[in-house]
Amino acid sequence: MKKIALLFAVILASSFLLRAVEPADKKEPAVPQIDVPKTGKAPVIDGKLDDECWKNSAEIKALTPAAENADIKAAPNTKVKITWDEDNLYIAFECSGYESTAAEKAGRDSDIMKGDVCGITVSGAGDCRLWYEIYISSSGTLYDEAVVLSADPELNPDGTLTEQSVKKELWRIPAWNGVQKVAVTKITDKEDTTKILGWTAELAIPGKDILKRRGTEKLSPMEIRANFVRLPE
What we know:
By secondary structure, the chain is mostly beta strands. Helices cover 6% and strands 42% of the residues. The chain is built from three helices and 14 strands. The protein has helices spanning 52-55, 163-169, 207-210; strands spanning 4-13, 18-21, 31-37, 58-60, 64-65, 77-84, 88-96, 117-123, 130-137, 142-149, 170-173, 181-188, 196-206, 222-231. Strands 1, 2, 3, 5, 8, 9, 10, 11 and 14 form a nine-stranded mixed sheet that branches. Strands 4-6-7-13-12 form a five-stranded antiparallel sheet. The longest helix is centred in the last third of the chain and has 7 residues, at 163-169. It is globular, with a radius of gyration of 17 Å. The relative contact order is 0.23.
């Protein structure tokens, strides 16, 4: 499965600015930052992206092929929108440029990595000790899990966890079902509604889970880490 992805430092703020942070070690790539405005009215999670908050949200206009998939010449078009309030981090995906072959909607936490899938990995503390992985298929199936590292991370030069650290210390908890609101809508041709051009997805991620390592439950202006992905078949 190909991976289209982008790692961001997500700044919960009152204004929008996309920028790159220069690393202390110039040999390491800069990690982009995106300032995300707070919304005064939460979106209705119906997959339609017609809420007022999405007009003023932060937006990532495109994801790029991951290093291992650098040979992809025409990546599917994927936009990500982000906003927040005290209780939730709201994410929207707008996906086109790929004809989905995803199966019919299945039960929660089913194996969905066989079709067109979008996802986010989010960490409130950014210390590689607790994060959440959330994936949504074009058919609307949700897979979410918590991931815990039971010791301080051992990292490779490129910043990824070492194989030994993964084998000994990494624990996946698919029983975590923190995401309670998610919806998907198909994008159809205006003249031929039987023709599917893509799909959109909306979800709300509870702040109390994102912030567990920080010891608080309410989102406020702060920096968190997130990785946005699209996994076309």
